[in-house]
Predict the 3D structure of the following.
Amino acid sequence: MNLYPQLIIDALKNVRHPDTRKNLVEANMVEDDIRIDGNKVSFSLLFDKPTDPFIKSIVKAAETAILTYVGEDVDIKGNIKVKTKEMVRPEPPKLLPQVKNIIAIASGKGGVGKSTVSANLAVSLAKAGYRVGLLDADIFGPSAPKMFDLEDARPILRNVGGRDLIVPEEKYGVKVLSIGFFVNKENAVIWRGGMASNALKQLIGDADWGELDYFLIDLPPGTSDIHLTLVQTLAVTGAVVVSTPQEVALADAIKGIDMFRSEKIDVPVLGLIENMGWFTPAELPENKYYIFGKEGVKKLADAMKIPLLGQIPIVQSICDAGDKGRPVALDEESITGMAFNHLAEELVKQTEERNKTREATKKVEVK
């Protein structure tokens, strides 16, 4: 029998809590510690209180659901651990003690230009004098090698403190690592979620990132195991969500925001970025054509009370620069270059405000 976590999750969607009427997955009661060893499956269920009268019946129902929907051969009885929210969860380990700020850059769906924004934002921060690292965590669609003209790069190992660590490539003042450096660019990466998550952990923990002011992580689109792995592995300072103004994209952006704000992840959203906000022809730089709708992300930011970090237009030079491996943010005189510089300034501002709030909260807790 070929068992994998998603089968277990799908089975648990058939079990509802009698009080909330939500299924276990929808109610965020299934902890992300699913373990599979042969036919043996184990995991934890999270309850609000240890006095919940339905604990035993729900555990029994969960066992039955797995045996029914996954297979009678699954060894599950007695392997479901009960946890309650009163149990204190440990904070993510400080894997990168020399990194000041870790920023997750996400999007609800693909095709909104998240990787282009990540690359140009990294370059803009580096130009402003910050020490910057960029991790291309889009395991199945890495684009950093192309955007930084590093497609032929093959990172070396360096012995640091008795450990062999991967040395990130450096271009335009940015330290860059991507799974694209380790696979053939013509080949598809066909991995299960666990393999992708382990690869991400290696690029984070087994690399010599050194001292950084900003460590940007270009996440895959949507919500997945990789996003959970990130927040479990690193103390993320905050997240940035990229979207186009189109309603279809905005609907998915809302899901991405909800993911970061959920109790399981609990990462502050520092701001939204509107990409492809309008089209400006090179020969008519003053004209704006709102192809995907006007200011959809701005309206969403206002409605959800999240800062709008910037609006980036559709300009052919952005695409051309990315294809040539020279991010358009390097051109300080261009409209797009100035737009990304402004974006970097706003990100720094929101990050500093977030850090001040966090320090103030710690002082109150100590008192």
